[in-house]
Amino acid sequence: MENINHATLLSLKNLTSPWATSNATSLSWKSTSDGPLPIPAIPTALLVEMCFMFSLMFTQSALLHPKFQDSSTARLTRLSMGPLLVAWWLCYPFRLPILPFEDRSVFPGYLAATMIFKSIESTFSGGPYHMRTLKEVEGVPVWEKDPVESPPKEGDPNLVDLLLWTVVLFTSQRGFRWSWGPAAKGNEMSFLKALQEMVRLQLVFLPCLAFVLHSQDLASYTIDPRKALLSLGVPSSSLEMLSAIPVLSTYLLYPTLKKTSLPLKVTELINPASFPPQFGSLFELSSLSHFWGKSWHQKLRRPFLFCGGKPAMSLARSWVALQISRRPAVLWASSPSVDFFMNTQCTPYSGSRILILENYLKAYPPAFCSFSSNHLV
Question: Where does the Wax synthase domain start and stop, copy by copy (predicted)?
C-alpha cells in the first residue's frame, strides 16, 4: 500500500517465513525478482479423495428421497457416512499446498464449512424431502408452505429422475423448491428490468473501483487487481456476474426449451421465476426477522438449525425429562408419611438415611419445586 507521496507503508511481498523457507515441500513466501512464483497444483490423490467424498454426499442426498422414507437401512447408511465426511472436510483446508501469503483465499475454508454443514444436515435429517412447484396466486408466482400432511405417494422413480432430484437437492441453497423452504414469492422481473438493475448496480460500483485502483499499489497484486477492491470491503463486480449472467440467460433459454420435447421437470429448472433476487425490496419485508430468516440469510438457516437449534432443543428436552422423572421421588420425600416413617422406624441406620435424604432435597432449588407444583401436576 502506498500513500499520496508513493511511500511504501506496508507490502506483503516483504513478509518471509523461516518455517516455510526451511520446509522443502512447501513454497517460500518470499517473491523473487523474476516474477511471481508458480502456484503449486493440488495433488492428484487429494482430487481423487474429493471426488469420492462428493459421491458419498450425493448418496446421502439421494437417500433423502421419499422412496427411502421407510427404509431403516437408508437411514443407517446416512448416519454411517456422516463422521467420515465431517472429519475429511475438516482436514481438507490443511492438506492443500502452501501458497504465498498474498495469494491465499478463504475459498477452501468456505467450501469445507459448506460441505460440513450439508453433510450434518443429510446425516441427521429425520424425514424425506419433497419438491414444491411454483403456484400462481393472483397472477404472482409463489412457493406456498404446504400443510403438514402425508403427500401423495408416487411410483418408484427411474435412475434419471432420481439423479436429477439429487442434483437439485444438493445444489439448493435457499430451499425454495423444497418442503423445508419458507413461503416466498418468485421472480417477477422481466429481462429488461433485470438488465437495467444490473447496469444500475455496476454504475454504483465503478466510481468505487476507480478510486481504489487509483489509490492502491497494484504491483503487489500480481494475480488479480480486484483484490485491492475486495480488501476494502467494496463489492466486486465479478462476484455479481457469476450469478447475474446465468440468471439472465434463463430468460432466453426457458421459452426456447419449452417448445422442445424435453420433460417439464427439466425445463422448469431454468424458469426465471425460480430465481428471486437475494436482496428484494425492503418495502416488501414485514419485519427484521423476515429479512434475517426468510430472505438472504435463508442460506444460513439450515446450518444454524441442524448445528445449533436442534441440538439445543434436544438438550432442553433431555433436561426437562430428567427433572420430571425425579419429581415423584421429591413429592414422596416431602410427604407427611415419610416424616411418620422416619420418626417411628428407629434403626441404627435411620440417622444416615435422614442425612442422605436431606442432602438429596437440598439439590432442588425452590424455583423448581414451585414450577413442579404449578405446571406439572
Answer: 276-318
